[in-house]
């Protein structure tokens, strides 16, 4: 039987050409979100204009990935890697026994992690919008500039805004909790990738950087 992955290599320009694994948009959203998490978690100040700009960028990247999950190539589509907890446990068990099989996209454990991260990031973005009244970073920057110039009228709250203070407090607590959970999941994700790369004997990070995986000849497989 002909290996479908070898056929893909032929279509890409020869038997030695490694087949595509992750398309450019998947890599863009992956590393864009990763960079945003690092920026807002370790660099920007909470509530600052840069922090909010990064939050809106995450909003855009998540929306883009959501659309791509229905319209992109096979490996990017949600239907290719549905969340299946039982399958994830079986995959981890197979991995430890050295019998893990090939998946066209995320493996079952990776898919659970992807959905968990997306859910937490979505909650971070949603609560951030509530906390800022969904104002754009430009509007918030203009308000801060006005206050710095001595115009405090921009901070005068109406009755409706005061009524929403309780909601904002809940949103702020949820925002912090979800953000911390993102860091925990990100750590587990990195640890999982490192462990699986070691157990499988191949670099799982490189395909997300270059979009391609090693061919069988490159990997020394028979």
Strand and helix layout:
Layout: H1 4-11, H2 24-43, H3 49-71, H4 85-97, H5 108-131, H6 137-148, H7 159-163, H8 165-200, H9 206-210, H10 216-219
Helix pairs in contact: 2-3, 3-5, 3-6, 4-5, 5-8
Q: Any overview of this molecule?
A:
The protein contains 10 helices and no strands. The protein is mainly α and about 220 residues long. It is elongated and about 65 Å long.
Any idea what the radius of gyration is? 22 Å
Q: Rough shape?
A: elongated
Order of helices and strands: HHHHHHHHHH
Give the amount of beta strand, in percent. Answer: under 5%
Distance between the termini: 15 Å
Question: Brief overview, please?
Answer:
The chain is an all-alpha fold.
Give structural attributes.
222 residues, mainly alpha, elongated, disordered C terminus
